[in-house]
């Protein structure tokens, strides 16, 4: 890892959580009322601990969102609205990736292609530039990188190790070798090494196996991952193979990681389509971990696992069943900003 650049872990102190409010012009239109309830619950939870910065497409949407949040008794002193006309609300993938650079920051602006050109993404690809122009990052320089990479596709321990999946990066860059991708990620993200998972996927996930649906670093050389203990489930063989991959990983000093397998929710099917109900898609904030809840008997058990992996933090369940209808969950709609950014 370089002396001046460092990619902080998600559990380090944060300035705010960045989200984009859903509206009828996004893919949420068909079930907007349901997903708004999830966003309200999310902002309620975040603002108990730290600020939430909310992108809004126009003044009318800001007025509406503010009214909804006030009626839910959200602490509006911790809410900041940011105007920007976006395509959709998956800010984990279109939002900024922030490195610490000495006493300041560097904001990375990777190319966003909507997961390999699956959807329209022209406005979302300009999000980071627009936020920088509005001063959200203070004096931190924005570095544009013409390389498709989504925040949900990478996971760091804050100490020079990156975790990702080969399937996702290979889908985005089929002509690149693993060695080439490894070198690029280490250079841009200031990492000493990259750990690759060769197994793991979820039905209903259109990100091509983002790591944040499968496995996450936790403090103290730990990895939390989505397990499947049902031999009859179509995911069983693949997630068992992923668990073996993870068990074989070693820390920078050669030790096995401490492992925290998450329980498996019962299948959630919508109009014949299996939805990706992953508990690994949780969000870490100051003093708490927000975990997606799906109305399943495994919700409480998953929260108990996170309590062990993140001792000393509150574990807060956020109802996320509406989100998985659009193939993502809690972590996917958020992006954390490190403490001090924008000041």
UniProtKB/TrEMBL annotation:
Q: Which UniProt keywords apply?
A: Hydrolase
Q: Is Transcription regulation set as a keyword in this record?
A: no
What is this protein's name?
A: Agmatine/peptidylarginine deiminase
Record the organism: Pseudoxanthomonas kaohsiungensis
Q: What is the lineage of its organism?
A: Bacteria, Pseudomonadati, Pseudomonadota, Gammaproteobacteria, Lysobacterales
């Amino acid at each position: 890892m370089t002396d001046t650049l460092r990619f902080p872990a998600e559990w380090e102190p944060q300035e705010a959580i960045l989200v984009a409010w859903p509206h009828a012009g996004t893919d949420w239109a068909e079930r907007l009322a349901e997903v708004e309830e999830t966003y309200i619950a999310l902002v309620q939870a975040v603002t108990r601990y730290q600020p939430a910065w909310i992108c809004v497409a126009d003044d009318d949407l800001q007025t509406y969102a503010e009214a909804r949040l006030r009626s839910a008794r959200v602490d509006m002193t911790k809410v900041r609205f940011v105007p920007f006309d976006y395509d959709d609300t998956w800010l984990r993938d279109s939002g900024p990736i922030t490195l610490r650079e000495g006493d300041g920051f560097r904001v990375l602006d990777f190319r966003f292609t909507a997961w390999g050109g699956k959807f329209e993404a022209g406005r979302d690809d300009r999000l980071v530039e627009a936020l920088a122009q509005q001063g959200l990052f203070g004096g931190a320089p924005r570095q544009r990188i013409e390389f498709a990479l989504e925040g949900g596709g990478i996971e760091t321990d804050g100490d020079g190790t990156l975790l990702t999946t080969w399937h996702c990066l290979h889908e985005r860059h089929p002509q690149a070798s693993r060695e080439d991708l490894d070198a690029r990620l280490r250079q841009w993200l200031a990492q000493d090494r990259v750990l690759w998972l060769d197994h793991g996927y979820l039905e209903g996930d259109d990100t091509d196996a983002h790591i944040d649906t499968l496995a996450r670093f936790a403090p103290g050389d730990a990895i939390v991952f989505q397990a499947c203990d049902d031999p009859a489930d179509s995911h069983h063989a693949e997630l068992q193979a992923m668990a073996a991959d993870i068990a074989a990983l070693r820390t920078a000093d050669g030790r096995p990681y401490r492992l925290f397998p998450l329980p498996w929710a019962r299948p959630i099917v919508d109009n014949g389509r299996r939805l990706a109900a992953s508990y690994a898609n949780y969000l870490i904030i100051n003093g708490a971990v927000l975990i997606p809840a799906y109305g399943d008997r495994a919700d409480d058990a998953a929260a108990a696992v996170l309590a062990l992996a993140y001792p000393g933090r509150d574990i807060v369940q956020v109802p996320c069943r509406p989100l998985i209808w659009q193939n993502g969950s809690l972590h996917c709609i958020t992006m954390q900003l490190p403490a001090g950014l924008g000041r």
